[in-house]
Amino acid sequence: MFFQRIHHIALICSDYERSKNFYVHILGLPIIQETYRAERNSYKLDLAVGDTYQIELFSFPNPPKRVNNPEAQGLRHLAFAVPDLEACIQHLTQHQVVCEPIRIDSLTNKRFTFFADPDGLPLELYEE
């Protein structure tokens, strides 16, 4: 199996300050890093969940309600850390699973791709 562990859980919120307050002050999740991306008019708030897990809280201007788009409001996607992105894509392709073109994370320069589960839930492979 290619999956090593869950890499992160990404959420897109409808009201950044309200969600930030909830996750940080009500749930008590420590802030790892907060980034404002001016070109996207968007915040990315990295929150620690214990020593192993991380939630990425995103804001986007007027996010659409959940459809099947990883940029829609709500649970964004589930990401799996993998050692070899091409091998994983090849494995999925052999099983008739379509992957999006490989992207580069502008903050970490790591490579990743998205695909969907049978119900359309966006899943990500994130190369470490």
Topology at a glance:
Elements (H helix, E strand, L loop, with lengths): L4 E9 L2 H11 L4 E7 L4 E8 L3 E7 L14 E9 L2 H10 L8 E2 L6 E6 L5 E6 L1
Parallel strand pairs: 1-4, 5-8
Antiparallel strand pairs: 1-5, 2-3, 3-4, 6-7, 7-8
Beta-strand portion reads 35-45%
According to CATH, the homologous superfamily is 2,3-Dihydroxybiphenyl 1,2-Dioxygenase, domain 1
The H-and-E topology, N to C, reads as: EHEEEEHEEE
* Total strands: 8
Number of helices: 2
Spatial order of the strands in the main sheet? 2-3-4-1-5-8-7-6
Q: Percentage of helical residues?
A: 10-25%
Tell me the overall shape: globular
Largest sheet: 8 strands, mixed
The CATH class, by name, is Alpha Beta
CATH level-3 fold name: 2,3-Dihydroxybiphenyl 1,2-Dioxygenase, domain 1
CATH architecture: Roll
Mean of pLDDT:
87
Number of domains: 1
User: Which class do the helix and strand fractions yield?
Assistant: alpha+beta
Distance between the termini: 15 Å
Low confidence ranges: none
Give the radius of gyration: 15 Å
